[in-house]
Amino acid sequence: MTLLALRALGLGDLLVAVPALRGLSAAFPGHRRLLALPGWLHPLAELIGGWDELVAVAGLDEPLPAGLPDIDVAVNLHGRGPSSSALLDQAHPRRRIGHAQPGWPGPAWVPPLPERQRWCRLLAWHGVAADAADIALARPSAPAPEVGAVLVHPGAAYGAKRWPLPRFADVVAAHREHGHRVLITGGAQDRDLADQLAALAGIPASDVLAGRTGLPELAALVAAARLVISGDTGIAHLAFAYRTPSVTLFGPADPRQWGPPAGGPHLLLGGRQRRGDPFATDPDPALLAVTVPQVLRASGVLGVLPSTPDWRRTRLEMASDGAPAECAVPARIPK
C-alpha cells in the first residue's frame, strides 16, 4: 500500500506543513509513504523524517512523474483545489484526504487559520492526529559554515516583503558595533541585493553567503546562529524550527497565520495598516512601519543586544520613520 502527499510549494510552505507531515507518517506506518514536492526542497524534506521516498514535482502544471506505484491514499496538503486535487486524481487513489470539493470529502476551507493548524485540522477531520506545535527539524549532517553569527536576510520573493536596504544596513552596523559577526544570507537570486547591503553596511564580501550555501548548509547555519533577522520568508521558518532567536518583519501576510507557535524565542514586528498584497513590487505599509530602533529593541529583548543600548540617541533613531509598529510576542522570552 502506498500513500502520496502533495506539497508543491516553497520553503516556508513546506515548514508550516511539518506537523501534518509528521501526523501522516505516524498514522500510516504500514504504507510506503511518498511526499511530492519541488526537487530543490528534497534535502530539507529529509530532515523532517518519516517519509520513505521524495517525488520531484515542479508545480501543478505538469503531470505526476511516470512510474508511480498504485496509490492507496492521496493527501492534498497543497491547497483546497481544484488544480492540486486534479493532479492527485491522476493517480486514481482509492482514498482521498483533502478539503471539501467535488469527489473529495473533507472539511470546508476556513481562510483565517494559522497555517499549521489548518493542515492539522484537515487531518483531524479524516481521523489523523497531528500536533501543530511539532515543528522541530533534525539537524543536518553538514557542518555549519559559522557558529554564533547574527544572520541578516534581506531578500524575499516579492518586493512587498522586502524591508528597505538602508534600514537593514543600520541594523547590521549596530550588531557589528557590539562585536557580533554578521552574515548576510539569501539564495542565488538574492546575491545582488546582498552585495548592495554589504556595501551599505561596510562589511566585507566574505561575509555575504547569499548564493553560496545549499539548503543543508543554510539549515545548519540557522541552527547554530545567535539570531536571525529577516522578513516573512523561508529562513524565518527555519529559525522557528530550530528555536533560534529571531526577529521577523511582517508586511502583507498576517503574523497570526504565518508566525511561529508559542513557546519559542521569537519576536514579530509589523504595522497595523496592511495592504495585504503579497505579490506587490513595493514594500507593504505594515513593513514600512517597522523602524530600525524597534528591530534593535527586539534584539535587546532576545538578549542579543544590551537591554539599554546606547544607540537610542544615535543616527539609528533617525534612520527610518513611519507609523508605530506593533510587536507581537508569541513566546515566553527567556530572561
Question: Which features would summarize this protein structure in a list?
Answer:
single chain, 335 residues, alpha/beta, six-stranded mixed sheet, five-stranded parallel sheet, elongated
Uncertain segments of ≥5 residues (pLDDT<50)? 309-335
Shape category: elongated
- The helix fraction, in percent, is 25-40%
SS content category: alpha/beta
Tell me about the largest β-sheet: 6 strands, mixed
What is the radius of gyration computed over CA atoms, rounded to a whole number of angstroms?
21 Å
Terminal residue distance: 50 Å
Q: How many runs of DSSP E, i.e. beta strands?
A: 11
Averaged pLDDT: 90
Question: Beta-strand level of the residues, as a percent range?
Answer: 5-15%
Q: Count of helical segments?
A: 12
| Largest sheet, spatial ordering of strands | 7-6-8-9-10-11
- The SSE string, one letter per element, is EHHEHEEHEHEHEHHEHEHEHHE
